[in-house]
Design a protein that fits this description.
- Helices cover about 15% and strands about 45% of the residues.
- The chain is of the alpha+beta class.
- It has one domain: Thiol Ester Dehydrase, Chain A.
- It has a 7-stranded antiparallel sheet with strand order 1-2-3-7-8-9-5.
- A hairpin with a 2-residue loop joins strand 7 and strand 8.
- The longest helix has 17 residues.
């Protein structure tokens, strides 16, 4: 299991934008992460203490980033990428308004040194709130593999 500080060391997200709090489990194809949302705490994606369901795509993308870095190994630096496509996004609700535990899962479908394709899902308190598919592409100047 990895905690928030270990996650921040593995992804390019910094400060409050590093949303994941722990990696519960991972293997070659999947990762399971957790985070919490509380309307009374600062959150970079919240509006008026409410977290839009569209923010769940960012949680999925960060799980993908952690997974890619874990697959690459500790000897590589976090690799910056950009979200090139977000598809099949299904949101179950409009926003989170109260405290919630988020379970974020991502499963790698395909990838190489140029990019990765994942399916992701987010459950809140064991209730599905979002799922989709995302493609992340990497900059040409990155030398590590993810």
């Amino acid at each position: 299991m990895l905690e928030a500080e270990q996650i921040r060391a593995r992804i390019p997200h910094a400060g409050l934008m590093s949303l994941l709090e722990r990696v519960v489990s991972w293997d070659e194809s999947e990762i399971h992460c957790q985070a919490t949302f509380h309307p009374d705490r600062p959150h970079p994606l919240a509006i008026g203490g409410k977290l839009p369901m569209t923010a769940m795509a960012e949680y999925g993308a960060q799980a993908m980033a952690v997974h890619g870095q874990l697959l690459a190994g500790d000897s590589t630096s976090p690799r910056a990428g950009y979200l090139a496509a977000l598809g099949r996004l299904e949101l179950h609700g409009r926003e989170l308004t109260g405290p919630a535990r988020l379970d974020v899962r991502a499963r790698r479908l395909a990838g190489d040194s140029a990019g990765q394709v994942y399916q992701f899902s987010v459950n809140v308190d064991d209730r599905p709130v979002a799922d989709g598919q995302a493609t992340v592409m990497f900059s040409d100047d990155s030398s590590s593999k993810g």
